[in-house]
Amino acid sequence: MDQNKTHELTMKEFENIFNRLYESLCLIANKYVNDLALSEDIVQDVFIKAWENKVPFKNKNKIEGFFYTAVKNKSLDFLRSKYAKDVETYSSEDLETLQTESYFLREAVIIEASSLVERALELLPDKCAEAMRLSIESYTNKEIADEMDISVNTVKDHKKVAYKKLRKMSGYLGIT
What we know:
Blueprint: E1 7-8, H1 11-33, H2 36-52, E2 56-57, H3 63-84, H4 92-99, H5 101-122, H6 126-136, H7 141-148, H8 152-173
Antiparallel strand pairs: 1-2
Helix pairs in contact: 1-2, 1-3, 1-5, 2-3, 6-7, 6-8, 7-8
């Protein structure tokens, strides 16, 4: 492939990328601006500008990274403007921390991992998935039993089945 050749996304490719990344990008933006509606606006704005400007990509494998970086930068731009207008007080240290690559990567990994876990939980039987979600939220087995109106032993059984199925699924994903 010619190194200088760029690829312009087709409408279908663009829609697929939007549908695949939208939720994760909104969560990334929300980590910065702490406002879900505003986060959605930021993500939509990034996609609209990318489409209107027909952003060319030299490498199809870098498209996801482009959108994550664009959303991060747009979120930081919002914070800077909000900071400059003194609507909400952010210390310069807070802004510097939010700008670091390690903060961004950590948040992106957390969101992607959470998304993978949620998709895996959706494949479990309903009661097993519910017990695991509550467990992830730091509920004790007793609290889960009370919430689900079942015995503690049944909670343990649901979690045992869930762990077994999740381990099997993680093998398919190459996670050990």
